[in-house]
Design a protein that fits this description.
Elements: E1 2-6, E2 12-16, H1 25-36, H2 51-63, H3 74-82
Antiparallel strand pairs: 1-2
Length: 84
């Protein structure tokens, strides 16, 4: 499943749903955004959606008032992208 995010000016990007076991650049992007917001993810797990990443996603979802799933869906992507 893909989440579509439309940027100001009309540019649109498809963002993948991410969950435990996923790997790749999108996972790394989520990890960087979570770390920038103070959620700890060990550097050696970069690009791997492991238990540490899942716990950080759950904590972020809880702190943001979202339903806690541990999965990065369109709602979680939106909060990560839009929050300063």
């Amino acid at each position: 499943m893909m989440a579509n995010y439309k940027f100001e000016g009309g540019a649109s990007v498809a963002l993948p749903e991410l969950t435990l076991g996923d790997r790749g650049h999108a996972v790394g992007m989520v990890q960087v955004m979570l770390c920038a917001r103070g959620y700890y993810i060990p550097e050696e797990t970069a690009g791997v959606f492991d238990r540490n990443t899942e716990e950080a996603v759950c904590a972020f979802q809880k702190d943001s008032g979202m339903t806690i799933t541990g999965t990065v869906t369109d709602g979680t992507w939106a909060w990560l992208i839009l929050m300063d």
